[in-house]
Amino acid sequence: MAFSQAFVRSMQEWVGEQKKILELAKKNMENFKNADRLTLLIASRTACQHISRTIKGFENWLQNPAIITVMPKEMLQEIHEKIWKIMIDLIEFDAKHTGDFLEFLKDKDKLDISSLLIKEEKEDRSPPYSL
The whole model's pTM is what? Predict the structure, then answer.
């Protein structure tokens, strides 16, 4: 099965883009060691966006019949092992971080942030008419 030049070029561009992002990320990690809270927040959100974009790319990749019909089992095994490790690490980190933050909030009973939180208001979304 031969892939079109456009498809090959698209994969080459993706790899090139990912390598540039990786280089920038590695280069900037040192800059965040003494960063203020806002910079850390923005950097973390940026990282989450790149993670989401990469995971979505893998998801699309693994749903593409042109890819999965010819990808060797060894490559699928490598993807499976790495993606599962990333998933487990991320879930473990999420549970730990959320638990730690919950403990932080318990220790800060006097901390009132309710005015900063978005209050959920239920809105009647039923149509103004019926059939």
Answer: 0.73
- Interhelix angle 37-61/5-29, nearest 10 degrees: 160
Which whole-number Å values give the CA distances from 130 to 8, 91, 106, 123, in the listed order? 53, 45, 48, 18
Q: Which residues of 70-83 are buried (b: 16+ CB within 10 A; e: fewer)?
A: eeeeeeeeeeeeee
Q: What's residue 107's pLDDT?
A: 75
Tens digit of each residue's pLDDT (9 = 90 or more) over 53-65: 999 998 998 999 9
For residue 119, the one-letter residue type is K
- Say which amino acid occupies 68: I
Phi-psi domain of 64 (left: phi exceeds 0; alpha: psi -120 through 50; beta: other): beta
Please state the three-class secondary structure of 28-50 as a single string: HHHHHCCCCHHHHHHHHHHHHHH
Collapsing DSSP to helix, strand or coil, 88 comes out as helix
- Supply the mean pLDDT for the chain: 86
